[in-house]
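Run log, item B.
One chain of 555 residues. Sequence copied directly from the ordering sheet:
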Amino acid sequence: MADFYNILSIFGGVALLVFGVRYLRKGLDRLFGQRLGTWMQRLADRKGWAFLGGLLVSLAAPSSTTMSLLAVQTVKAGHMNARQMLTSMLGANIGLTVMVFLIAFGFEQAAPIIILFGVALYQFTQSPRSRGIGQVLLALGFIFLGLGIMKQASSIMVESDAGFGEIINFDKLQQYAVLLAVFAAVLTLLLQSSTATIGLVIGLGSTDAINFQMAAPIVLGANVGLALTTLILGWRLIESRRLASANLLLKTIVAAVGLLILHLLGDSIQQLDSASLALSIALLHFGFNIVVAIIGLPAARLLTALFTHLLPTPTSKKPSAFGPRYITGGPIGGVALAMGQSLREITHTSEIVSSMLHDAWNALKTNDEKLVRQVSQRDDHVDLLDTEIKRFLTTLAREDNEHFDSAEQMRQLRYLSELETIGDIIDKNICELILKKIRLGIEFSKEGQKGIQDFYDKIWENFQIAENAFPIRDKQLAQQLLRHKQRIDQYERELRDQHFARLNAGLSEAFETSAIHLDLLTHLKRINSCITHVAYAILQDTEPKRSSTHTTTGE
């Protein structure tokens, strides 16, 4: 009966370890939000920095599942290609070994203290950042506490007459290194964490239940299992599938060579005491990923080219129906990554709206009625994306209300609403004015055309500033938008006065185009007002106040 209790305690420790790993990912979402992806993208933009970017981000967020999800989401969003992301993942793999070293150094003894500080920050503070730190500390405490429970239960079973040796024939198992590696890969896939699998091995090894000859294949298999997790998460998108396949091939080759070396060394690697075993497991995990990086960095371009050839982009015989690009299939990973998906889809919507404005203006200058009709059709695409993004964000809020960032949701929805309004102005107002101009066969005066073109150019510049400012929350660009608004309002009044002056002078073109000219100024000014609202969304403090019961009281 006592042994059955100890076995349940071990499984309880494993459960606590797995929960801690999952809770760690949620805490990282709360603490960093979308900034992890942004940091990685900015570093990857610099030549040779993609590897360092992955390393630094994984040190900030030591969760293998988070890094896998971040890799898939970043590639899916189009911020990085497969080669850049593979290089970043090689760095991230090394950064993730820090957690294993902490486990190896016996941090489970500090678990109660870590949990104490975690509860204090998470339960009794209201700042999202401090609550995020508290949640990360709680998760780390749970991980170390789970390991401590496993070690204690294992040591009791090892010392008992009917210990592990009576339940599992370890002498027999260590002869099947490949089988152990496969088991570890499957376990990592199920737990979605290589850290949890390796931590379990360290916990069992600390009680002399297993030796290094058994632990080494499990470490190799756990690393391959993490690559399998990335492949499954990214399977739906061809670019992320290529990334994950290249990563899996690299790790499988290094793991196969490692298993061969272990076979050649045989029994000579068994003699390690429990303290040395934990550190040896951590060093093996670290060394494995160093070797993968050494091989993978120079081979990244070749590997991505190989899988581009082996996994070609599927060709469709007929054009597929228009729909969202980045939120299809639902959220990927936690709330922060899902918010990244919706933000990328909103950026896609913004690109469509800006193309509508650009093409509508070309149609105005060239009297291209066909182009006007095409612009109007694109407004239907904007309306579709508006509906789908709103559905995605509201569904996300219902599914994970505790970790949902309602302030970020409101920022995204406000920007999306402004884009939808701009699309409607272009479709229902500007396009109608262009068609009216074409039907009447009239042209603006030379002075009027120059003034309205200059006014449009200023609006277009503001649109580009807003498109760049919102995704990265650039306050300097937002301030620039507000300064431009004042000048544009003044300039619009000057253009109206100039038009009235031409009317008083009796210029025939001014009479013929007067209504269209003035209406165009009005609608372009309305578009600029919508664009300027983006600046307010960036500059305004929209962080919701949270009570200790995790409810949102508003912005």
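Observations after the first pass:
- Confidence is low (pLDDT under 50) at residues 541-555.
- The first helix runs from residue 2 to 32.
Flagged for discussion on Thursday.
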